[in-house]
Amino acid sequence: MTYEAGKYDVIVIGAGHAGCEAALAAARMGCETLLLTINLDMVAFMPCNPSVGGPAKGHVVREIDALGGEMGRNIDKTFIQMRMLNTGKGPAVHALRAQADKFLYQHTMKETIEKQPNLTLRQGLAEDLIVENGACVGVVTKTGAHYEAKTVVLTTGTYLRGKVILGELTYESGPNNQQPAVKLSESLKQLGFQLARFKTGTPPRVHKDSIDFDKTEIQPGDNNPKYFSYETEYMEHTNQQLPCWLTYTSEETHQIINDNLHRAPMFTGLIEGTGPRYCPSIEDKIVRFADKPKHQIFLEPEGRNTKEYYVQGLSTSMPEDVQLRILRSVPGLEKAEMMRSGYAIEYDAVVPTQLWPSLETKLVNNLFTAGQINGTSGYEEAAGQGIIAGINAARRAKGEEPVVIDRSKGYIGVMIDDLVTKGTNEPYRLLTSRAEYRLLLRHDNADLRLTPLGHEIGLITEERYDRFLAKKQRVDEEIARLKGTKFRPDEAVQAMLAEVGSAAINNSVDGLTLLRRPEVTYVHLEKLAPPEVELSEEEKEQVEIQVKYTGYIEKQLQQVEKMEKMEKKKIPENIDYDLVHGLAMEAKQKLGKIRPLSIGQASRISGVTPADLSILLVHLEHYNRVTAAAHSS
Amino acid sequence: MNEDTIAAIATALGEGSIAVVRVSGPNSVDTVAKLFRSKQNLRDADSHTVHYGWIVDPRTEQVLDEVLVTVMKGPRSFTAEDVVEISTHGGIVAVKSVLELVLRHGARLAEPGEFTKRAFLNGRIDLAQAEAVIDLIRSKSDRAFQVARRQAGGSVSKQIVPLRQQLIELIAHVEVNIDYPEHDVEDVTADFIRSNCGTVLKEVNELLRKSNEGKILREGIVTVIVGRPNAGKSSLLNALARDNKAIVTDIPGTTRDIIEESVSISGIPLRLLDTAGIRETTDKVEQIGVERSHGALNEADLILLVLNRHEPLHDDERKLLTQLKDRSTIVVVNKIDLPGQLDLEEIERDYPKERIVFLSAKEEEGIDELERAVSAMFFSGAVESGDITYVSNARHIALLHQTKQSLEDAIQATYDGVPIDLIQIDISSSWESLGQILGDAAGDSLLDQIFSQFCLGK
User: Which residues form the tRNA uridine 5-carboxymethylaminomethyl modification enzyme C-terminal subdomain domain (chain A) (predicted)?
Assistant: First the structure.
């Protein structure tokens, strides 16, 4: 029996990191939104590492924030440690990484969701999608609640036909022994979706009091850390950071693992799903890199009010007894009390080439998917897709065109384009190397890249947008001022240059020329020739980066310009590639499957050659001219 | 249309006539102006005007050729873009060096059929011709692809693959430093980058040096010398080589029964392959040699079938004559210094007179006649793939120059204290340029390299 449970504009199924962003975005854009989750206590839960950020991932959090999303604000409110990574490298790869109080993180997110107007949070296990005339129009839960919707977003994480594997033991389960979503997977299959089977895993957790920290190295946070959100000004807990601790596996660890490989599901064939290469289990690492004498283990607190410690580096699906022996072979963990064991989890994912770049499925209109269901891994990757799926589900519900972020505008754009154009044969993790315009996609300029878009779609308030514009203006004006400021070879200037170890100048030079010298910073110039109003730290940083790396930035901008021309050449959705004369067979098949929306996207499909692209261009030109002629006559 | 600027040889390669390098795109005038010395500054030239002058290498001011340059501004040109055409002296040497120079100064080599494609996309070609334009692109691309694939196994590829491997290992190392900053992977230092890029740069310079001397071996028409044992194949090879400054190949690690020399005949580059004598045999070792000879024949653009005039026609030779009559084959009747026993009628039945050459390899008599026959075949178009081989070679040289530039930039950046993630941009460019030389054969997965080279994970 089902009953009518309500009508919504947007329904989001799953309240993990993707679902929370999707639901908040849709509600903030004015859509009546329902967020369904199997267990209300699991909202924004971190089933694996208690941390957010790092290279590429941290960039995504900044991008989410620049678009008006929640993850950045939420981690700022709940971090227990904050570090800027890669500070010795270029500005593009500086990356913020936070350790989260994972319990506070989820409670804070839940509170935000509960307070959000237009947003309803409900516990319920979605089992069936209602599809009429090729479009998704609602959802039915296990308890018979029938919700109608204009659009539906699926963010099922690892719950979709989830199966936990722990040594010889396997059982149907979502993460952390939650109920899995089994019927929904069947529903997707019946709708014709091609599903992949992926695997991920998590390490055991140990009791803090059982760790001998003297045998480990301390890993403290930054003293004056930055925050993820452009809106965060100061957080009191910044001064109460908790350290992480570093130790290593021992010879004994490797021996125990090698002796027990016959019980490792990775090698007994119990695990069918494809695991990510970048996140291997410890047994996998030891088999594949047999020469490496030891592996790093980081011990990370899971929160302020818990004794649980996450053992990063020991992800494993070995039987529980072996896990305990492995743990106790690690210096510092000789007396470890294992509070939870590690496990591997297999789950269903939708093959992501079945999606449009808007994250709407090609098979069912008004149905969107985001997060692990799309074959990704990681909270940040999930949240990044979540906000886009939420935005586009809301825009669809309102009858507006979807929003797509270019590869040159954000890691979110890189990720989604990779997924829908190339697909993935392992859980997809963002890496900075996946971005071809890495220097443009910096941590510092996420607002410059995306806040105008966030404002346009209604996620950035007028007040915040004005602040953003003012900042941008001050940066631009300061760069112009430096360009117009002459520094003469006088005593003060030469003294500064000598002090930083830079060659003296013979003639007057402008500020930009000086600032491009590797040794000279904005602060040096500011002292010699201060602006009328001192800039904020962020603005100074922006001026310095934009000036110092002009050469490289220009080069990348030229490449972007070239690519944009290709992106602007649109391909009609209804094109029948079989009828395009001259295309190679392989190109016909690939193009027909992916159905790229532009020549640019087509160019990224493997197996589509430059000759195929040329032929497609000629075909489109022909088609356009014929269509134009038909319209004019 | 604001596309990049492309260039190619627009005329069929032919001896004695004029050859034309066509340049099209927004920078075409500027690109050629850098290389053109004349009373007229090309940048100020009116559209549809012709200018007399010289093409020089701006680095050395060395004159390459005396030329006529035609400027046609868009949209009143073939492609509707700014087009500059450089008419050089005929033959190969001049037009080829001019093209190479243009490619090094802002233009890239046009893809097969690209001028026509642009003309169509810019509305210069009638709608009804769309299918013909597509057919042109398809056929030219397919042909270029075949040549490229064959070249992929060539000696330059063999030298480029390890260079790319060294670069990608370096890139993977840099990337791991960036994406896994807390992993216990050694930091990439400026010294490390310098020494790796330096090694590759040295090799690239060596390749460029060879190419400047025309020594790039993949360049050239694959010419197989075939015949019975003792017909005089090796003597012919040596005679051709002596006459044409042969370069003895130095492909490391290749030991085979086929001897290879590169020669240039009237500017046409030939890769001469001397094969083991072909005959029916039961000797295992010799059989392998004979099989290889047959393999080489299948790959050949041009075949020199050597017959011994001093002996009557053998059955093996009859078979070859039949087998090769529809290929680009020249019958070389050798040993004219000795009394003749060969029945020529049998040969003349299947082969026209201009494809039969009489000579004595030993006495080096009649070699020039063979050379004339070869160039006649080449220029008549009877030898396939010549121009593609040739032009792709100009592209490779341009790509090698790009690689060199990127590596030099990377090395310079290490001295300037530029952070590794920016230096990586140049290293990656050099890796990509080398990859474009290999074309389809280039493996491209950085991530595969990262995850096989380093143990990463949480």
Answer: 547-618
